[in-house]
Amino acid sequence: MQIESPAFKENARIALHDVDLQKALGNLKAGFPTKRAAAIERMPEFDSLRDEAMQLKNHIIENLDLYLEQFEENVTKQGGHVHWARTSDDACKTILDICRQVGAKTVTKGKSMVSEEVNLNEYLEANGVTPVETDLGEYILQLRGDHPSHIIAPAIHLNLEDVTEAFHEHHGRPRSSDPAVLMQEAREMLREKFVAADVGITGANFCVAETGSTIIVTNEGNGDLTQTLPKTHIVITSIEKVVPTLEDMTLFQRLLARSATGQEFTVYNTLSTGPRRADDQDGPENFHVVLVDNGRSEMVGSEFQDMLRCIRCSACMNHCPVYGSVGGHSYGWVYPGPMGSVLTPKMIGIEKAGLLPNASTFCGKCESVCPVRIPLPKLMRHWREDEFSKHLSPKAARWGLGGWAFFAKRPSLYRLLSKGANRALRLMAGKKGRVTKLPLAGGWTDWRDMPAPSGKTFMEQYKQQQR
Amino acid sequence: MQTSAKRHQVGLFVTCLVDMFRPSIGFATIKLLESAGCDVNVPSTQTCCGQPAFNSGDKATSIDIAKQTIEAFDGFEYVVGPSGSCISMLHHYPELFAESDPWHARATALKGRAYEITSFLTDVLNFDDILASYEGVATYHDSCSGLRELGVKQQPRTLLAKVANLSLNEMEESETCCGFGGTFCVKYPDISNRMVENKSANIDASGANTLLGGDLGCLLNMAGKLKRQGHAIEVRHIVEVLAGMTDEPAIGDANYNLGKAV
Ligand code: SF4
């Protein structure tokens, strides 16, 4: 996927005027947050589970190497293989190698954001292996040559009409706007692919160290067909997904479903433990897990360590007023919203992603809904500090800040400055009580008036009263 | 009222926006504090809480301003301000210093004494002896920092319930950010605009004729939008209403007495 994060502002401007997108975002806002709130209402212990989950995650991160080794050991014991991928490239190469070993022409894929992160589809395609997305949302996006705009509802930016058009164009059947008909159509198309695929690739929501299992949670069941029908199952996931025990996993499952979609439990919770055994009814002959690092291990012990707690529930973006205004594509890379504004700079560099951690009012809504209590605003602020110390923030902003700081640190000069500005604003406002056009502050006055000061500064008036 | 011997010694953190744009908020805060049994002083070495620097990643400046503020309010029993956002910033000061740094302890002490005005009156002083009257239907915007960092939600409503003739119509999404966000509103003006448009629609739909809130930054933003859109809704800081000081035109409204004031 092309990196478009440096164009965040332009992307956002276009998105704000995209009527169809705004309609779709309206549906999102009305959907997930309402359902989450209702689910939590029904679970009084939700907040204490969050504390528990946070502590458990912290423990896991502090012992990450240990649990990962245990996981590897147990996958191997079950007859599977674990591959360590330091970079995106490593991950893609490893997967291509496996595909080549088994002579794969087509692979079916369940939804996986890590595979988006490493740009797997393009890589496979460029090397003669055809990936077929089987998650309905991802399938629609693939037909359209589009990318996910949300981490659990990848096609949330589309409306029904878009699906109608995409299916009509690619399936060559009459147009339908009946969701049931469209669903049936997708099913029929995908059945063939499921049967023909040589390899099935899925992500994993969690990796269980004590059993060497991986789990996917989905609402469509496509993941089950993806991983059980082909001869080879490859799981691509990232190192921070490991949890010690099955019981620990259930804690996160409870939080994940409620935080994401407001469900008590996701519909399909499918565990994979090694390849098919002699008395198993189904399952793949080969089982591989590709564990992607991509900068994550560097986050351990850094000021961004808390971010490794993320369980990819999407609550932060579902509740973010900025995401809700501009949609996921504006962020210009794989992970959008508040969690993306913290992760993206780590993965593509702050030089390219600097606009993302700045695109927040720090309203704190994201942190307040995060099931593992990630202090997202604080982490975004760390990026701003990084940017500032590397002199990457825009010159005009730095100068403005520097000028302001000079006065703010000198109270008596500051009094003079505020007195002057106070007079200037009042003169500009005249009798109207507000300024409609302010030089250097077009960002404000293009959209709203600037209320004028109501009189002399507080400090002036207070001093007069004290005399 | 308490005897003067027992009166709390409060330092008023004016906030830079109140100083510059709307002194009446500062005076209303003083009036409320005095009627609740406090002696109020305004240290002249205060400027801004430092939030613009802090949120722009300029840690060195944030530290300088934090030290200046800590020193300005040394010796006060409490530090109270008419802004959840600026008081939250004071609560962030300990993060700026290493735990071994003596400033860390001083910052932590300040944090323990610093309160947003409605929370101070309600949670600390248990004061609700509001004698004001306000003819109107109000709606209340919960500003983000006060709400999520300081837990200010019920306090303003408890106090407003004591105001004669005032009724409260809650708007939809009163807890959703108005899009001000300090420098955010000029760095990302069109996103900020969308957020404040959503807010003004909710304010309008509430049927209220007055918008109240506890943070002047947000109020300037919302008033600026409402006025640009031609709404007649009056925008005021909650302390103006609680202190019965609503003679002055509302935020962004006309009739400022320019000649006399300059
Ligand atoms: S940061 Fe928190 S809220 Fe956002 S996706 Fe991750 S776990 Fe969910």
Could you describe the 3D structure shown?
The complex is a heterodimer of chains A (467) and B (262). Among the domains of chain A are: 43-297, NagB/RpiA/CoA transferase-like (Rossmann fold, 3-Layer(aba) Sandwich), CATH 3.40.50; 412-466, no CATH class. Helix content of chain A is 53%, strand content 11%. Chain A contains 24 helices and twelve strands. Chain A has helices at residues 8-16, 19-41, 46-62, 64-77, 88-101, 113-117, 120-126, 136-144, 160-171, 179-196, 222-228, 246-260, 296-299, 315-318, 321-326, 337-348, 350-353, 355-358, 365-369, 376-389, 395-408, 411-429, 442-445, 458-466, and strands spanning 81-85, 106-109, 130-133, 199-202, 206-208, 213-218, 232-238, 242-243, 268-272, 286-292, 434-435, 450-451. In chain A, strands 1-10-7-4-2-3 form a six-stranded parallel beta sheet, with helices on both faces. Chain B has two domains: 8-123, Rossmann fold (3-Layer(aba) Sandwich), CATH 3.40.50; 130-242, 3-Layer(aba) Sandwich (Rossmann fold). In chain B, the strands form two sheets. Chain B has a four-stranded parallel beta sheet with strand order 2-1-3-4, with helices on both faces. A four-stranded parallel beta sheet of chain B has the order 6-5-7-8. Chain B has helices at 16-21, 23-35, 51-55, 59-72, 84-92, 102-113, 117-124, 144-150, 154-160, 184-187, 189-205, 216-228, 238-242, 258-261; strands spanning 8-12, 38-41, 78-81, 114-116, 133-141, 164-168, 210-213, 234-237. The complex binds iron/sulfur cluster. Chain B: GO terms for molecular function: oxidoreductase activity.
Keywords:
heterodimer, A: 467 residues, alpha/beta, Rossmann fold, 6-stranded parallel sheet, 24 helices, elongated, B: 262 residues, 2 domains, 4-stranded parallel sheet, 8 strands, 47% helix, globular, disordered C terminus, binds iron/sulfur cluster, Cys_rich_dom (chain B), (Fe-S)-binding protein (chain B), oxidoreductase activity (chain B)
